[in-house]
Input
Amino acid sequence: MAGKSVIPISLVSVKAACTQCSLHELCLSEGLSQEELASLDSLVGARRKLKRQQFLYRAGDPFEAIYAVRTGFFKTDVLLEDGREQVTGFQMAGEILGMDGIGTDTHSCNAVALEDSEVCVIPYAQLEQLSREIQALQRNFHKVMSRELVRDQGLMMLLGTMRAEERLAAFLLNMSQRFTTRGYSAAEFNLRMTREEIGSYLGLKLETVSRAFSRFQEERLIAVQQKHVRILDGERLRRLLNHAPR
Amino acid sequence: MAGKSVIPISLVSVKAACTQCSLHELCLSEGLSQEELASLDSLVGARRKLKRQQFLYRAGDPFEAIYAVRTGFFKTDVLLEDGREQVTGFQMAGEILGMDGIGTDTHSCNAVALEDSEVCVIPYAQLEQLSREIQALQRNFHKVMSRELVRDQGLMMLLGTMRAEERLAAFLLNMSQRFTTRGYSAAEFNLRMTREEIGSYLGLKLETVSRAFSRFQEERLIAVQQKHVRILDGERLRRLLNHAPR
DNA sequence: CGTATCCTTGATTCGCTTCAACATTAGTGG
DNA sequence: CCACTAATGTTGAAGCGAATCAAGGATACG
Output
């Protein structure tokens, strides 16, 4: 406790700095002037670190802020009274969490870190305020919400019309694409979630997910070992999606 | 053309008037002062009438405005390249359509009138402008988008974890609740969509929907004749949802 | 190093889809 | 207004894909 009053230099970065953030185009700061970025900086509260398995917020929590993922990996999930659970999304660096709370002032889902993570806390009242002053910020925020709506449409399509292997193919291609956007390899990555979480997200049981992985491996579409995935034939994986079996 | 300059008195109402609209609390105008309402009035462009089966917009159309349903009934749907289709929502009076277009400046789904309908056209650029000036409008708009996200979560849960009869029960209760909000009977209403559209929305085939309807009728949960539905035992219908079979 | 978690694989069951036939309703033009 | 036709809805039988049940194996973690 004695050391608390002397802040080590390395902790200065705990205060967010959109100005220097590498997640520009992904986040809310795209297209803002230097001056506007500075305002956004002062709006963004301290960052918050989370250990693996820690909750960022829970369903029922009062809504106060939205969060931008700086590092790490999250899932959001919803629970039914009878205990059934559904993962509604996975979020990685540059993506925004918490907008589900705006409508009712209460979060409607849980957000859990799947690995040690860090988020920028964006107090919502201040975001509203500032986005009345900065048009580009307003626009970015609206775009982020709208894209989330479109993402949800895609997921509904997946859950409503696709068979197990199509769902997994869509999932893998989506992961690949998002890793690419962040400058990582499109062909090789580590999943942060379990088979059960993938299954929950895709509306499948974990055994089915596992079988689909094995099938893809047999077919030389991917090489998979536990959470490590290498995409061997993205083209054929993509064809799995666009051509219905019947 | 000669008649254009003399506007018949009955057509005055073609221009929207949030001030007198009965959909206050449902729409964007909740909590606005008289003066602010007047501004919103001037923002809202003319209304637009649609015949049954007409498109309000199509996937790929440039995004220019969002729409508030004044009267009638809509569906939104998404198409996959291989022809598979999924209904992503049904919209009734007071609900907002078109927000899917904000993120990419292009609509990502089709919006079709399921009966003769009328919408208020809200040019988006002007909505952005005005919601920078009127805090209550900004807040309402954000809430509408956020609630849509939460609705989508619920639908994912439905598609991912529920069996056929649970899905239909959830659907009927949702319809009932929304009709109630609009001052109609909670127990008796006319569906505007076909079994196939219901099925598409619920991720089921039309035969399965039909069978579930018949089953509910046998069990005296509802009385159904084609599109007309009467809920006989809402309580038991609700219990179908909250208690998983296993 | 031991234990809990996660993953894989096989056998069986079950619920929904598919295919098919028929009934009913709505819409159209004579 | 009625006859005709297309669209929509219902029901049955068979097939299939994913869930369930079960056992064993791999991996991560304290």
Summary: The first helix of chain A runs from residue 34 to 43. The domain at 11-156 of chain A is CATH 2.60.120.10 (Jelly Rolls). Chain A has two domains: 11-156, 163-241.
